[in-house]
Specification:
Blueprint lengths: L5 H13 L5 H37 L2 H48 L4 H7 L6 H40 L1 H49 L1 H7 L2 H53 L5 H18 L1 H4 L1 H25 L7 E5 L3 E9 L6 E10 L4 E6 L5 H9 L5 E7 L5 E4 L8 E2 H6 L9 H10 L5 H4 L6 E2 L1 H4 L2 H15 L3 E5 L7 H12 L4 E5 L11 E5 L5 E5 H5 L1
Parallel strand pairs: 1-5, 4-10, 4-11, 6-9, 9-10
Antiparallel strand pairs: 2-3, 2-5, 7-8, 11-12
Helix pairs in contact: 1-11, 2-3, 2-5, 2-9, 3-5, 5-6, 5-9, 5-11, 6-8, 6-9, 6-11, 8-9, 14-17
């Protein structure tokens, strides 16, 4: 839960759209929205007056007065239909435009300085995907809806207060006291509970949805493990938490609905009770009761907006807090400039100087005082038991691991290509897979097909409809095929340095040897992490990481001895 006021959180949500740059089109739309809102609310006041006129004409059995009143009434309705429809249309357009702008703002932050990686790796916030996909939509829609409702209520409040005061000052004073008491009860009794429950509900729904997505993405592995019973139990447990919180929400909603409905029904009956003596004494026409009842209800709704829209307000508050939490975490990541720890700088080679890597708790060391240099044209194999820090060292070179001390020199990030053990297969065509992340590069079809042949995927394009076929490649290709495709990506991108984290673990030794032979024929300098002794044949140096933060650098010949 964030500890600064909701208005500051609200400002963080509206600032990217309303205050970052001139938006004359949006300002014009906003002015139109205000104009149509003022117009529709004004016509509601006229409509109420005409209802009273209709009632009085019927009570007097005055045909001419009735015909005149019904004519005005229909005219008002027709114009108001146009105003309300236009208002709703513009409201929807502004909400959609706001969502587009806010989503773009969040995505820009999400992909700046690998925020998406840090949020996931260090569990900074739960379900950032759900916050950007669902919370932004709900917040923008609810905010515009409630802002328009507040504007409508303000106009009607001004108009109907005057009408109520003219009919009965006692009625007006009663209404003000009634609204104040109702608002206090709603905020004090229901306020904190509803915001907390809605926040928890958003989190539990997102966790449940994430679990289903995770099962979908790992369906084959789960099936091989015969793990359906365990997964089913876990998902039922997650849904059980969703169900329990919804039950809690329903119980609170039941109590709120009793209060809301009672509050609204009393606004309907109170005018009759208060004005009955004046009607019976013929001080007021019967139409005044109709007018006062409608006015009382409208003013009561305006003054009691917190009461009638409390569930919407609490859901909005929860959504704003979740989005603000995400913004705060991403801004912290993008603005982070470590004044100590691991210092990164750019060079034409990779050099690690007196590097010590620690776990995030800063208590456990993985690597102690490591110094190595890999010059252009050289190759290094990193070996060691599981858990000694091999992958952590690669993350430090990439700039992802900041816990520790020492210095790392490396080429610019766009001159280094990392190949993880499980390659990333983005949505797209086979051509895009081969060129990722530089999919705009123009490379001849023949070159792409020749490269596929070099990595032992000669029939891949033909099997799935050509280079421009759109397929979910992570599903149709085995891990070994994905690793070969990633090698093709490496050969085509021609970086200065390549860092391979067990990038051939899923292919047979003969294929792995062939891939490394192709890599040796290029000008790419490479660092590998691996366990196969066969890889020694394709590297000049070996870095062995050992337990107790120890390490030793060998030439390959010395290591083989």
């Amino acid at each position: 839960m964030l500890n600064f006021p909701i208005w500051q959180q609200f400002r963080q949500i509206i600032q990217p759209y309303w205050f970052t740059q001139p938006r004359w089109g949006v300002i014009f739309q906003l002015l139109l929205l205000v104009a149509f809102s003022l117009g529709s609310s004004t016509f509601v006041i006229f409509e109420t007056l005409q209802r009273g006129e209709l009632t009085s004409s019927l009570a007097q059995q005055n045909v001419n007065r009735f015909q005149q009143a019904i004519g005005f009434f229909f005219s008002i309705i027709i114009v108001n239909i146009i105003f309300i429809s236009a208002k709703n249309y513009i409201q929807g357009k502004i909400s959609l435009d706001w969502r587009k702008c806010l989503t773009s703002y969040y995505l820009n932050q999400y992909f700046t300085k690998q925020s998406f990686y840090h949020l996931q790796a260090f569990s900074e916030v739960d379900n950032p995907d759900q916050r950007m996909a669902e919370d932004i939509k709900n917040v923008t829609q609810r905010l515009i809806f409630l802002l328009v409702m507040c504007l409508d209520s303000l106009v009607q409040l001004i108009g109907f207060i005057g009408l109520l005061w003219l009919i009965s000052p006692i009625l007006m004073i009663t209404l003000l006291a009634y609204a104040v008491v109702g608002t206090l009860i709603t905020t004090l009794v229901f306020g904190r509970a509803f915001v907390g429950i809605n926040l928890e509900q958003l989190k539990r729904e997102a966790d449940f949805r994430y679990g289903l997505v995770r099962i979908r993405d790992n369906a084959e592995a789960i099936a091989f493990y015969e793990g359906q019973a365990e997964e089913s139990a876990q998902m039922k447990q997650r849904f059980g938490r969703v169900f329990a919180n919804i039950n809690r929400l329903i119980r609170w909603q039941f109590n709120l609905n009793i209060f809301q409905n009672g509050y609204q029904y009393l606004t309907f009956i109170l005018p009759f009770i208060i004005l009955a003596p004046q009607i019976f004494s013929r001080e007021l026409e019967l139409g005044a009761v109709t007018q006062s009842q409608a006015a009382f209800e409208r003013v009561g709704f305006a003054l009691g907006l917190i009461i009638t829209q409390f569930d919407q307000l609490s859901a909005l508050t929860a959504g704003i807090r979740r989005l603000t939490e995400l913004t705060t975490k991403m801004e912290k990541i993008t603005s982070f400039e470590p004044d100590s720890g691991i210092q990164l700088s750019e060079e034409t080679y990779i050099a690690v100087n007196h590097l010590t890597l620690q776990l995030p708790d800063r208590q456990t060391k993985l690597i102690q005082d490591l110094s190595i240099t890999v010059l252009p044209g050289q190759s290094l194999l990193i070996i060691g038991a599981s858990g000694v820090g091999k992958t952590s060292l690669l993350r430090a070179i990439a700039g992802f691991w900041v816990e520790g001390e020492g210095a790392i020199k490396r080429p610019p990030p766009d001159r280094i290509l990392f190949l993880p053990q499980r390659p990333y297969m983005p949505w797209g065509t086979l051509r895009q897979q081969l060129l990722y992340p530089h999919t705009e590069k123009a490379i001849a079809k023949e070159t792409l097909l020749q490269t596929l042949n070099q990595v032992h995927l000669p029939n891949l394009a033909g099997r799935y409809g050509g280079l421009d076929a759109f397929v979910d490649w992570s599903r149709v290709l085995s891990l070994g095929e994905q690793q070969r495709l990633a090698f093709a990506r490496l050969l085509l991108s021609e970086p200065a340095y390549a860092i391979l984290d067990e990038a051939t673990s899923a292919v047979d030794e003969e294929t792995a040897a062939s891939l490394y032979q192709k890599l040796q024929e290029t000008s790419i300098t490479y660092i590998s992490v691996g366990h196969r002794t066969q890889l020694l044949n394709y590297h000049q140096f070996v870095l062995e990481l050992r337990q107790q933060q120890e390490w030793q650098l060998f030439s390959t010949k010395d290591y083989e001895k």
